[in-house]
């Protein structure tokens, strides 16, 4: 008889973590590798957040905290939802975990019974189905095509719902496609959900601030008829470049929040006290960091491009396409002749969306990186 449980046999190791680890190993071996695995911001945590953590350490805030978050962090989360999403919550509607991933895991463990179905629009973040399986549920994958913008339609949602459906997962902006649901698209889905009162919505909003092309973020809990059936998950990892700090949070129905706390009390207990102090500063402190990072130009008119909402961290991306003076990330300016701009244009249109983003990052980093990347592009085009 195997020592490994049957429930663990239902799932596979995280592909994201596996490919990210492989990239680390290749870099350690001296290979120049672009990692397309984890959603890891390549900029640093802002100094005010770091300083808040240092201050907490020196104050001695190094003890156990409440299992599901300190009062200060819960208040900061409440303020965030009020300020950015016009949503009102009380402290008993808030939970804090060691990253958004744990919050999702806790939610499924606390609510799913054997055979309960969870609707997952595809393409999807790789961990959703395995979390559902581990909790005894059944993932119901609904394919969303490129023609549909990789987004679930009301028609497909209506067809997918059965008597066994317990959750619908909505991830907007999406990992991995970057597709974001508009307010109208969410309202269309809501019309179906309002009629199916036993279906709960898990809104994964972790990429809320990773949006471009003037996309207006809207979350389904903002529709009053569905707020009481929606668990809205978010965190500080992507918005504030705090992936390693491991703080995620959620707001939702009191009974679900209480159940999540019960699961957490018998597993990890509280998130790091220092990380929580840093997260308070992230949510309550100066938000200029987000605005500066979001000040990004479009790559050009590609209306049907699936990477419209992918994050591109270069202010001069448009200049790269037109051939002009481009301000690089290190503050210096480089002139891009028309002939080079044409080559860059062709390369950007040729490669896959994720690689396109990485090319632009490399071109915009500094002069050395620009020349090296341009040379590689030229060689690949000949």
Describe the secondary-structure layout.
Elements: H1 6-9, H2 15-28, H3 47-59, H4 71-85, E1 94-97, H5 100-111, E2 117-122, H6 127-134, E3 138-143, H7 154-160, E4 165-171, H8 183-195, E5 200-204, H9 224-227, E6 230-235, E7 248-251, H10 254-265, H11 273-284, H12 288-293, H13 317-322, E8 325-327, E9 333-335, H14 338-350, H15 353-365, H16 367-381
Parallel strand pairs: 2-3, 2-4, 4-5, 5-6
Antiparallel strand pairs: 1-7, 6-7, 8-9
Helix pairs in contact: 3-11, 4-11, 5-6, 5-10, 14-16, 15-16
User: Which strand order spans the largest sheet, edge to edge or round the barrel?
Assistant: 1-7-6-5-4-2-3
Q: And the CATH topology of the largest domain?
A: Aspartate Aminotransferase, domain 2
* Mean pLDDT reading: 86
CA radius of gyration is: 22 Å
Per DSSP, what share of the residues sits in E-state strands of 2 or more residues?
A: 5-15%
Characterization of the model:
With 382 residues, this protein is α/β, with parallel strands linked by helices. It has two domains: 47-288, Aspartate Aminotransferase, domain 2 (3-Layer(aba) Sandwich), CATH 3.40.640; 296-382, no CATH class. Helix content is 44%, strand content 12%. It contains 16 helices and nine strands. It has helices at 6-9, 15-28, 47-59, 71-85, 100-111, 127-134, 154-160, 183-195, 224-227, 254-265, 273-284, 288-293, 317-322, 338-350, 353-365, 367-381, and strands at residues 94-97, 117-122, 138-143, 165-171, 200-204, 230-235, 248-251, 325-327, 333-335. The strands form two sheets. A seven-stranded mixed sheet has the order 1-7-6-5-4-2-3, with helices on both faces. The chain has a two-stranded antiparallel ribbon with strand order 8-9. Strand 8 and strand 9 form a beta hairpin. Helix 5 crosses helix 10, helix 14 packs across helix 16 and helix 15 crosses helix 16. The protein starts with 5 loop residues before the first helix and ends with a helix.
């Amino acid at each position: 008889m195997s020592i490994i449980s049957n429930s663990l046999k239902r799932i596979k190791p995280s592909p994201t973590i596996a490919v990210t680890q492989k990239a680390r190993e290749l870099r350690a071996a001296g290979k120049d590798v672009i990692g397309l695995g984890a959603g890891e911001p390549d900029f640093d945590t802002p100094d005010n957040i770091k300083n808040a953590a240092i201050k907490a350490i020196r104050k001695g805030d190094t003890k156990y905290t409440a299992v599901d978050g300190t009062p200060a962090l819960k208040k900061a989360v409440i303020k965030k939802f009020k300020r950015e999403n016009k949503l009102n919550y009380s402290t008993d509607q808030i939970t804090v975990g060691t990253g958004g991933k744990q919050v999702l895991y806790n939610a499924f463990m606390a609510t799913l019974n054997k055979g309960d179905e969870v609707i997952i629009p595809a393409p999807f973040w790789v961990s959703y189905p395995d979390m559902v399986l581990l909790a005894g549920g059944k993932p119901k994958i609904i394919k969303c095509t490129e023609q549909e913008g990789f987004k679930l339609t009301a028609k497909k949602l209506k067809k997918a719902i059965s008597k066994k459906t317990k959750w619908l997962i909505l991830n907007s902006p999406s990992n991995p496609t970057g597709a974001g649901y508009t307010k109208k698209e969410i309202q269309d889905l809501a019309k179906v959900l309002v009629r199916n009162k036993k279906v709960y919505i898990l809104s994964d909003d972790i990429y809320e601030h990773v949006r471009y092309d003037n996309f207006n973020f809207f979350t389904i809990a903002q529709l009053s008829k569905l707020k009481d059936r929606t668990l809205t998950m978010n965190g500080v990892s992507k918005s504030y470049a705090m992936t390693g700090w491991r703080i995620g949070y959620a707001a939702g129905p009191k009974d679900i929040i209480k159940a999540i706390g019960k699961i957490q009390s018998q597993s990890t207990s509280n998130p790091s006290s220092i990380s929580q102090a840093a997260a308070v500063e992230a949510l309550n402190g100066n938000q200029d960091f987000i605005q500066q990072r979001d000040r990004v130009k479009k790559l050009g008119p590609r209306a049907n491009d699936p990477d419209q909402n992918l994050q591109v961290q270069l202010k001069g991306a448009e200049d790269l396409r037109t051939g002009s003076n481009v301000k690089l990330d290190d503050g210096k300016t480089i002139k891009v002749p028309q002939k080079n701009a044409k080559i860059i244009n062709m390369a950007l249109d040729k490669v896959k969306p994720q690689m396109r983003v990485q090319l632009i990052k490399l071109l915009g980093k500094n002069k050395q990186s620009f020349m090296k990347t341009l040379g590689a592009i030229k060689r690949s085009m000949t």
